[in-house]
Structure formats: structure tokens, C-alpha cells
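Hey,

The postdoc asked me to send both predictions to you directly instead of through the lab channel. I've kept everything plain text so nothing gets mangled by the mail client. Protein one:
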Amino acid sequence: MDIRSLDGDDPATISLLLPGFQETMSLELPGDPPVSQDLLARLLQRRHGADRIVLAAFDGDRPAGCTKLGLDLGVPDGPGHGSLWVFPAFRRRGAGTALVEAARRELRARGRDRLMVDAPHTPAAELFATACGAELHSTNLRNRLFLKGPARAGLDASADREVPGHRLVHWSGRCPEELVDSYARAWGALDAPVNGQAEVRVPTAADVRAREAEAERAGHRQYVTAAVGAADGEVAGYATLFVRDSPMADAGETLVVADRRRRGLGTWIKAGLLSRAAVENPHLALVQAWNGVHDDAVLALNRRLGFVTDSSWSTYSVKA
């Protein structure tokens, strides 16, 4: 296998890898819509505050699989965290092992000593992780909400239940100028790590604008719903959703600042966001959300809104 480094922001990379991803995901997640160019572009692009390594294994001129790793630029010795795929026609031929070894070399060259890789939680993945000397680090659940099913009525009802002392503000694309600083402050309270992305530190309005541009470059419309306090005009919580030219959208963050919790704001915000996106995007049929298996508050919120867990994915950690 020949390992090559690719640019995840180059449209040629997306075109080259898309057929293999489509074949892989149709096998791993047969109930999902086909992988689109926009989805793969979002997956492979550099994220705000992070670098991105994309390595592909080739058999001749055909890509056999790839791995992508995000590197938090604010933590120069932190791990590389990403995912690895071996396309179905090339499995059990050494592509996965070659990609892991190549990723380890890239990380060592950058002074990083830990590789963290996500994979479906299956016996095959566990055997491969053991063979590579990796240990289970954490597990995430994939939750899905079908917007055209019976859950829709409950979603709309939750969106109509107002929380006293607050109002909902909706936008897509660009945050209103009068809220951008407050929105950045709320974002700074987020404490859940996201695979391959930079840790949230003290974001500013410029960081908000950079993240908006990032989604736009990958062909995604970022929907946001925020609860704003009537008395102080501050963002008390928000939820994000990424919509593309596909029947499936990706839930992003859901946050309520600490002193406004246990009032029903999270349910109201997220229900309002999903209801609005469904109305404005008739093609949208389902939403997927990824949550840590121990993130009890968000898992409970998603269950209230009608999300159902359909699979689990694990993160494995191995010394570079």
C-alpha cells in the first residue's frame, strides 16, 4: 500500500475519496442517505483553531482507505484525534495497519505522542484496536430523530412552550451583530470536547465569524436558535444544526449557561431549532446527533425530543 498525504480542503480530494466513502457508509450505516460531497467536505476540512491531517492508502491509483486527524493548535503536544476508514473492497489487506502506522509517524514528527481514532463499536473494530496496541478510551452514541414521523407533533409542542423571562432568536448563516459578543461568551461555557476540533477557550466575535465561514465553505447552512434573557439581553443558551443538500442534517452543540439550567430552556431551544429547520427545508427527513455515553443531561434531552439511539462508536487511544 502506498500512503499519500492529501489536502482535505481541496475539492479534488473530495472527488477522489467520495466513491469509497459512499460504499463504506452504505455498508456500515445502510439506513442513511448516500454520503454527499458536502458531508465529506465538512468531515475532511480544517476546523477553526485546528490543523488537519488527511492520509490515504492507495492500491495503484485507487484509494483503499483514509484517516483524518484533527490537531488542536492551542495544545502543541496534544493528541491527534480523528477517524479511520478502509473501503470494503480493500479490507484485510493491510490498509488499516498501514494508515495507523503512517498517522503515528506524522504525529511523532509534530511532537505529539497520542493517536485517538473513532470507529464503529463492533467485534472487528475491537480486534483491530487490540492488534494495534490501542485501548478503549470512550464511547459515543449516535441518536436519530425522524422529522416526518410521529415524533414531529411532540417536537412542535415543545417548541411552543415558552420559558418566562426569555425569547427565542433564530438565524441561519450569520449571527445578528447585536448578539454576536453575547453568543461568543455563551459558546465559551461549552465544556464538551469535540472529535478533531480545538478546545473552546475564550471565543470572540471573530471566532464566531470564522466558524460561520467554515460551515459555508463546506456547503452547509448553520442554523442557530438562542434563548435571550428579556432583562439583560444576554444569550442564556443556544443550539446549532448543520443542514446540507441531503435528507439528513447534523445536530451540533446544545448549551444552557450554568445559572439558567433546570428551567426547560434546553428543550425549548432545541425543539424550536429543529421545528424551524424542518419547515424551511422540506427535503429534511432526519437529524443525527452524537453524544457521549455518559452525557446524561443531553441524552435525556434528546430522548424527550424523540431521538432514538441506533448505534455506538468507540474512541481508541494508542501511543504514537
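Protein two:
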Amino acid sequence: MTTDPPASDASRDRLSPLHDEHVALGAHLTSFGGWQMPLRYTSDLAEHRAVREAAGLFDLSHMGEIEVAGPGAAAALDHALVGHLSAVALGRARYTMLCAEDGSVLDDLVVYRLDEERFLVVANAGNAGLVARELVERAAGFDAVVTDRGSETALVAVQGPLAEEIVAGLVEAGDDATGAGGRVQVVRDLKYYAAAPVTLAVEDGAVEALVARTGYTGEDGFELFVPADRARALWRTVLEAGRPHGLVPAGLSARDSLRLEAGMPLYGHELDTTTTPYEAGLGRVVKLDKTAADGSPLPFVGRGALAARRSSAPARVLVGLKGLGRRPARAGYAVVAPGGGGGAPQVGTVTSGAPSPTLGHPIAMAYVTPELSAEGTELAVDVRGRAEPVVVVPLPFYRRPQRP
């Protein structure tokens, strides 16, 4: 999430089911993607560090949730998206993209396979309506129904090295065959990009949730999908249960600095309708060779353009930049040749940039010309007329420590 959201008419913004909770916690609210969302509660740095060292609680209810169900749901998604969704195992998730006929990115998505004939597509807030409309159009002719579940669904995330301990502690005891211990183990055993239905204990009873081991921070963590009318009880319970572990509520600003350190793209910055997955270094998600069970090829929207783009040299490449000074690059700043300042020939553009709380120096992602994309290449960023030295480094900037 961006730390500098575009201006919008706040009076028209949608409110999260957790809006009153954010107000009660003293959050600074901002317009983002057509919603009023918390930018921060205390300080950006404190919230960022809590996620890296303990845990943070995020309200992601602005994200779009779209169900695609029916005997033809898998085939419809294979046609609509660049990924091979019919090959996704039950209970697993896949990062993928919705592209236009010219191969440009309309949105990046996470798709969960809930059962054989039912999928959950999670879209970015500002693109949720577009994604729903495109899926309806692209599913025409398939035996599948597309339903926008966004208004009835809340999404919260628990992210950080202690997230598993906190979420496992919320598993509701019961008298089914697995028992509470078995369901706790379901949470602990969830693999990355996997999800399972779990009953969670909350302050006024229990709530049925889809618990997914996914996130956007570079840390271990979980995203919890629950009915919108149960979101407040879940939020309060997680805050109370997580407090002894050091969990704090965290806003969009911390989420942005965390995802930047993790080298994760943000739609509207690294991805947009001028970009294909190949320029963004995400060509791996495009399955040009996907086939049906009988071995026949599976055409999809944008395939021709993407096949042509893969075989041609890119005009620009997404890279990581490490700042060698103290002044951070910001989105939209020009990348120039070393020593160049204002007026120097531009060789690229910063898409995201900020000081890194974890690493202690400025970092940025930028598109540059291919001949300047090699690791170790020295460049500069024009920061208000002054050349700030940077060097090309591998992405991601940060990888979480391996823990036993």
C-alpha cells in the first residue's frame, strides 16, 4: 500500500466493517482505493518494526473478494487469467494476473481453490469492480457463476514471526473428530499459499473463517476471511490475544514499507496498464503452455501478445536500488547516469521508494533500460535536482530469517 494515496472524495469512500474500531484506536485515516482506511495508529516505524519482530494486525477489508463457482469454474479462470488455475490443488492458492488482450496488466490477484468447483479471487481495492466485470464477461460460455462477495466479507491479516502462535491460539475447541488439538495443528501445518476453513474463538462465541497462510509483508503470517458482521469481534479478540506477544495494529504506511523491503509489486506502481508481467520480472506467472486434461492447449485472454512479448527484448527492466546516501528516492523520480543531476539524461523511473527501517538505508524499485540493469551497476536518482547515488541490487531487499 502506498504511503501517499491519491486524493479522492472522502465523503464517497466506503467504510470498512472495522471503521469504528480504527477510530477508537486513534488511527489516522486516509482515502485509498475508494475506501477510508487507517494509514497509521502510532508511528510508521513502530508498526513496521512490530511486524518484523513480533506481529502486526492489518485490516484488509478494502480488498475485493470474488467467487467463481460451478462445473466450468476452473476452465473459466484458465481462460480469464494468465495462470493455470485448473492445476491448483484443493486448499492451495496461486498468485496470478488479469491481463488485457495487449498483454498489459489490469490487476494482480491471488486465487484460492476452495473446492473442486469453487474459487475465491482476491483483487486490489481500486480494481475490484473492474476485475468482477471482466470475470463475468470472460466466464460467459462457461458453466460458471461469478459472484462479488466483497460487501459481505471482511479480511484481516496477522503478520510477523509470532503470527502462528497468535492465530493457533484462536482455534475454537469443539467435539468433532479432530478436536481442538487437531485443528490447531491444521493451522500450524498450513503451507505457504495454502488455506483451510477453521473455527476461531472470538469474544462473543465463535466464527467460521477461511485461514490462509498468505501475506504482503515478507514475514510469515495469515489472512483471515470472515463474514463482515463478525469482523469486529475477531479484530478485538486478536488484539487482546496478541498483546502479550507484542502485536500492534498496523496501517497502510507500514504495509507499504514492509512490502517494499520484500520486493513485492504494488498495482499502480510496479504494475499497470503500460506494463506486462515480463517487464516486471514476473513472466513466471504467465503459463503460455497450459493445457487441458486431454492435452489440448488452453488459450487465454492476452496470450498472443504475451507470447510475442516474451520472445522480444524488453525496453525496460524492474530492478532494486540501494541508496548510498541518506535522501530516499520516491515514486516518479528520474533515474539518471552516475553523477547526473537535474537535466541529466533519464535512464529510468522510480516506481516505489522509501527509507528501509529494517536495513537502515534508502531502497527503491525502478524501471531502467536493460543495459543498466545488472547487479552492481552504479546509477543516481534525481531527488529534487540533486543526484543521489544508488546501486542496482537483487530483489527482494529483505528475506525473513529461517526459523526452526
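Summary for protein two, as requested: The CA atoms of residues 163 and 221 lie 5 Å apart.

Thanks,
C.
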